[in-house]
Write a structure and sequence with these properties.
The complex is a heterodimer of chains A (171) and B (476).
Chain A (H helix, E strand, L loop, with lengths): L1 H9 L12 H7 L5 H7 L3 E7 L5 H8 L12 E3 L8 E5 L2 E2 L3 H10 L5 E5 L1 H5 L9 E3 L9 E3 L6 H15 L1
Parallel strand pairs in A: 1-2, 1-3, 3-5, 5-7
Antiparallel strand pairs in A: 4-6
Helix pairs in contact in A: 2-7
Chain B lengths: L4 E4 L1 H13 L3 E8 L2 E8 L4 E8 L4 E3 L9 H11 L2 E3 L32 E5 L11 E7 L2 E8 L7 H5 L4 H9 L6 H16 L5 H29 L3 H22 L8 E2 L2 E2 L7 H25 L1 H7 L7 H7 L3 H5 L8 H5 L18 H25 L16 E9 L2 E9 L5 E7 L6 H7 L8 H8 L4 H4 L1
Parallel strand pairs in B: 1-4, 5-6
Antiparallel strand pairs in B: 2-3, 3-4, 7-8, 8-9, 10-11, 12-13, 13-14
Helix pairs in contact in B: 4-5, 5-6, 6-7, 6-13, 6-15, 7-8, 8-13
The chains are: A alpha/beta (171), B alpha+beta (476).
């Protein structure tokens, strides 16, 4: 272990420069981020991820945000365990009827000001599952959505660009 | 693969149940197809798969779960989705149906009773602390020790099988690819094989090799991700970071080769959607070299860190007898002595042409499950070598029209977490009449309940991660 730790002092970091904030995201966010929120939060945002019915593909790419290449925490974002600690809900999946109540409760447990990001094609409008008897639809059909990041699943780079758009507006 | 489906009467159904109870066959699937119920059995010594059909009268069939516990949840799911009743089942509670599909109120769920002095309950989920899928765990504990865990799943039920009904083959393949995102390649692989068995055609050799390449890349990515995550659950962040780097490199190589990090929709019925990119082979070979250089040091780190071993050795033991009874697939079964891998038995193209070993251990603890994955990484690296060296030339897709008659097929693929079974019936126009997808987790989830018994609550995350059952693939 010691050898590996020492080596990391001599090697260049793997972390890559960030992508540009997502332009479409900036426009979508214009309405929802006001001055009061900016003053209160500064440049640090806590994220609570909620799987409302996803296939788990989006979760894998959200996980990747924490790896050495994307290193999300350098921007002041971090994932938290409780919605009570969160500023941002990242919601994935078509919202299933069986998860509707859990999503609502999580949303209600998140203190204001808060933002909801719908992650992935299913979260946008239910995707391939929209017509199912067991699915309500997109996230916006259950809670208000401030930003949508498309993709199936969105790449970590796309996720990062969306989050940076939020940061630019909020901070 | 196209095993003959046999229609049986009550006696034949009963004989099959006796075989399951006697252990000469493992339950491989049980699904509704109103007004019928189908049961798949696996003879583990020969790899033969049999599918039996029982025609229900008044929506009733004799319960398999009454005598063979692994069938219980499958029967509850059949009841929820097809309104067919398993007569004699000791557990008739709903499973996937939470009472809200037709706009009703969530029905209260009765957990199994626990009695004893000083017991308390800890409800966890469906929304968990990490970035994971939703499910509810009800722990009954005495102080720190778990006395009973009961799972409540179904939260991510999306009605996939119902959406597949009447879908075109292409649309159904897309749904199959989104059944469990971490196993998207394996699901597409199994679905494509089922469709090809039904249409009686074979994917070209080059397509078969490319499918196996994708399947092994997917296995590598998941094993690296999970080994890191298991160590992270023991607060050993360095393994997590190092394994995360390897996982990311693999996903990037997958994107360079096949245009998508998770290789979603890359395998389609009749072949593969796209050929490997021209520079992909060199890039993949460079990646193998890098993994071979870096991974042995990580294995050494895992093996020589006492604080980590303290958390994984002897934790979450799954007894071999349970693994056998439930026909547990994947590293869960193989870490508890069940020597089964669908790539070898019954096997499918192109694995018959490739040399690989199936690692088996018998300790059944978290450590054994980690070691199985380490050995499987080594095997997958060797398999990718063979595939790249022998990649046949030729087309990647066959064009065959539907036969114009109703046809059935069965597909099987070894996902990273175990065997995925797909059973498919097509109508004369090549549309899906009925498709059933059975994840290995149906037989793994219940075993997590036994593996956690007697462990402390704080060890649940590491036990759960070492199983890493799918929620979405199970809830469908």
């Amino acid at each position: 272990m010691r050898r590996a730790l020492f080596e990391s002092f001599t090697q260049r970091p793997l972390t890559e420069p960030p992508p540009k904030p997502d332009a479409a995201g900036l426009a979508e966010l214009a309405q929802s981020v006001n001055r009061a929120a900016r003053a209160r939060l500064g440049r640090s945002l806590s994220i609570r991820q909620v799987d409302a019915g996803s296939c788990n593909g989006c979760e894998l790419e959200i996980h990747a945000l924490n790896n050495a290449f994307y290193d999300l925490e350098r921007f002041g974002f971090h994932f938290v365990a409780s919605p009570r600690h969160a500023d941002v809900l990242m919601v994935t999946g078509p919202v299933t009827k069986n998860m509707r109540e859990a999503l609502l409760r999580t949303y209600n447990a998140t203190p204001d000001p808060k933002w909801v990001i719908a992650v992935g094609g299913c979260a946008a409008d239910g995707g391939l599952f929209a017509a199912s008897y067991a699915v309500i639809g997109g996230v916006k059909d259950v809670v208000p959505v401030d930003l949508t990041i498309p993709g199936c699943p969105p790449s970590p780079k796309a996720l990062l660009a969306g989050l940076l758009a939020l940061l630019q507006k909020a901070a | 693969m196209n095993p003959t489906r046999t229609v049986v009467n009550e006696q034949g159904w009963g004989e099959a149940i006796d075989r399951l109870v006697g252990g000469s066959a493992a339950l491989f699937g049980l699904w509704g197809d109103a007004p019928n119920v189908h049961m798949a059995l696996l003879d583990e010594s020969t790899g033969n798969i049999a599918v039996l059909t029982y025609a229900c009268t008044d929506g009733k069939y004799p319960s398999v779960g009454a005598k063979h516990a692994p069938a219980l949840r499958l029967e509850r799911a059949i009841r929820d989705l097809f309104k067919l009743d398993a007569v004699g089942s000791p557990d008739t509670r709903p499973w996937l149906d939470h009472g809200v599909w037709d706009g009703g109120q969530r029905a209260p769920y009765i957990f199994l009773p626990t009695e004893g002095e000083g017991l308390h309950q800890i409800p966890v989920g469906p929304v968990h602390a990490g970035i994971i899928e939703p499910g509810h765990f009800r722990f009954t504990a005495n102080g720190e020790h778990v006395v009973r865990l009961e799972q409540r799943l179904g939260y991510v039920h999306k009605g996939i099988e119902s959406l597949m009904t009447d879908a075109t083959l292409d649309n159904a393949a897309k749904l199959a690819a989104r059944t469990s995102g971490d196993s998207t390649v394996a699901y597409s692989f199994a679905f494509a094989q089922a469709a090809e068995a039904a249409l009686q055609l074979t994917a070209p050799p080059r397509a078969a090799y490319l499918r196996a390449l994708m399947a092994e890349i997917e296995r590598l990515a998941n094993h690296f991700g999970d080994i890191g995550a298991i160590c992270n659950d023991a607060s050993f962040a360095m393994m997590h970071a190092q394994c995360g780097i390897l996982r990311e490199r693999i996903l990037r190589a997958a994107e360079a080769c096949f245009g998508h990090r998770l290789m979603m929709d890359a395998i389609v019925p009749r072949g593969v959607a796209r050929d490997i990119a021209a520079e992909g082979i060199a890039q993949m070979q460079a990646l193998l070299t890098e993994i071979r250089r870096g991974f042995p040091r990580l294995i050494e780190l895992y093996d020589n860190t006492a604080s980590l071993q303290d958390r994984t050795v002897g934790t979450g033991v799954l007894r071999p007898a349970y693994a056998r009874q439930f026909g547990a697939g994947g590293y869960i079964g193989r870490a508890s002595g069940r020597d089964f891998d669908a790539r070898r038995t019954p096997g499918y193209a192109p694995y018959h042409d490739l040399a690989f070993e199936v690692p088996v251990l018998s300790a059944g603890d978290v450590n054994a499950r980690v070691w199985i994955r380490i050995h499987e990484i080594e095997q997958s690296l060797a398999l990718i070598d063979q595939i790249l060296n022998r990649l046949p030339a030729g087309t990647i897709r066959t064009d065959v029209e539907p036969k114009g008659e109703v046809c059935e097929g069965l597909g099987l693929a070894e996902a990273f977490r175990g065997d995925v079974l797909v059973w498919l019936r097509l109508d004369g126009k090549g549309r899906v009449e009925r498709c059933h997808l059975r994840d290995a987790s149906w037989f793994q989830w219940p075993l997590l309940e036994t593996a956690i018994e007697g462990n402390i609550v704080a060890d649940f995350p590491i036990c759960n991660k070492s199983f890493n059952c799918t929620y979405s693939g199970h809830d469908l």
